[in-house]
Design brief:
The protein is an alpha+beta fold and 93 residues long. Helix content is 46%, strand content 32%. It is built from four helices and four strands, in the order βααββαβα. Strands 2-3-1-4 form a four-stranded antiparallel sheet. Strand 2 and strand 3 (47-55) form a beta hairpin. Helix 2 runs antiparallel to helix 3. It is elongated and about 50 Å long.
């Protein structure tokens, strides 16, 4: 199943993580672990944020993606299933 992870990082923790180099490492690990097909980074409500799109067949693996982001960056995370246009067309029949 294709999933989208949206995460936000609180400003203070993000500043600390950027300064000590742990932010880049945590995000690079997330991208590698999920084998992300796309990743976008922006700001939401004044906080650093990202959108990661990836395929995952085993929901138990979500903890290995979430926990490092919680621990390293105090990230708030949402994960939702997403469709491509082709998926949507198939679903609509």
């Amino acid at each position: 199943m294709r999933l989208m992870m949206r995460f936000t990082i609180p400003v203070e923790k993000g500043n600390e993580a950027e300064a000590d180099g742990s932010m880049g490492k945590a995000i690079e690990k997330l991208i590698a672990d999920t084998n992300a097909e796309a990743a976008y980074f922006t700001m939401l409500d004044g906080e650093r944020s990202g959108f990661i799109f990836f395929e995952e067949a085993d929901q138990a693996n979500l903890t290995k993606y979430n926990e490092p982001m919680f621990a390293a960056l105090d990230a708030a995370i949402d994960i939702v299933p997403v469709l491509t246009l082709d998926d949507l067309k198939r679903g609509l029949g």
